[in-house]
User: Fold these one by one.
Assistant:
Number 1:
Amino acid sequence: DQQVKQNSPSLSVQEGRISILNCDYTNSMFDYFLWYKKYPAEGPTFLISISSIKDKNEDGRFTVFLNKSAKHLSLHIVPSQPGDSAVYFCAATGVYGGSQGNLIFGKGTKLSVKP
Amino acid sequence: DAGITQSPRHKVTETGTPVTLRCHQTENHRYMYWYRQDPGHGLRLIHYSYGVKDTDKGEVSDGYSVSRSKTEDFLLTLESATSSQTSVYFCAIRQGMNTEAFFGQGTRLTVV
């Protein structure tokens, strides 16, 4: 049973516009969330994170929003650039009965930014 | 770049043989993770470690074992490789709970 879900396998956006990538989770014990970007044949690279005590975190063009009641987070990229074209992974972690710090990823969303 | 190295980077092995992948870190981070990446499945957690000799299963641990006898090394062993274990394997390290994880470059394993 998937604990972290990214229901959109792909997203296409025009350069300069906003990209919004979504992620849902099922485990209410998760308390720290991360977004990663991955290019082919490379390891994932960290983008931005958010703690469950916050509802927003910003870093340059990237903003992550967390809605704990809906168990939903989103990554906004503004403005989108062709170099942002990659697969984006959402991840969640926490320490609870069944975990000593596991880090669970979604299946990813492939973002294509068209010039 | 975080000091994390995976070896080997590529390997072809035969069905039924044991295989060990190594993840080495120079960051003294507490947590280490092994993932596999497959089309349509994203990154799936195989096993992770939260300290020396402390390990736990992930989502897809069947057929895999791990060991961590010192902080810097986390070994993933396929006890008897099968074609379904053909994949790209990634190691990651993380200093603490509310910190980001850093990934290695990956190991492409082909089981024939």
Number 2:
Amino acid sequence: DGGITQSPKYLFRKEGQNVTLSCEQNLNHDAMYWYRQDPGQGLRLIYYSQIVNDFQKGDIAEGYSVSREKKESFPLTVTSAQKNPTAFYLCASSAVALNTGELFFGEGSRLTVL
Amino acid sequence: AQTVTQSQPEMSVQEAETVTLSCTYDTSESNYYLFWYKQPPSRQMILVIRQEAYKQQNATENRFSVNFQKAAKSFSLKISDSQLGDTAMYFCAFMKHKYSGAGSYQLTFGKGTKLSVIP
């Protein structure tokens, strides 16, 4: 089935460690996104990418990094510079050419810093 | 910058009744998209309904319909014949049109409304 796969679903990290969240899509979508979700805050955009080898910062990019080496993959690294990394992270993709604006989401990854 | 405001953090409705969730937004754009997304307890976000700003007709999807008031920058969601499976967080979201330049394709979300359907 077509869709977006995020892994791992749950991740624990010690302070000072970097961690990478995986996001893979087989929808042949051009654009991919990372959002952070905190209780009472809605979703906030971390990074997005519209084409391979190109990405832009969103509203809260500090302490995060991404890469887009393949169309289907958009991993997010939460670095030790991120002051409050405990959150729920959602990856999404969209078909730019269709011009519908609709995003398709993965099931999310919950990161807890111990 | 665009902002999206959902003024109702929590709402409840009896099964089979109708409920309306509010959303207002602020933008200087003339062409854009508006969305309602649903996030059930299982956490996967799914699209409920979509509206293009240049279309005057309100979008409908089965039991879900919107009241889009462009001049008032209001975009409310009506759920008719509420079902237990409608229990979820509902997010209103805004996206600039594809050809609006920088920031296109980025969704701006409201903080969400937690809807509980009571049997």
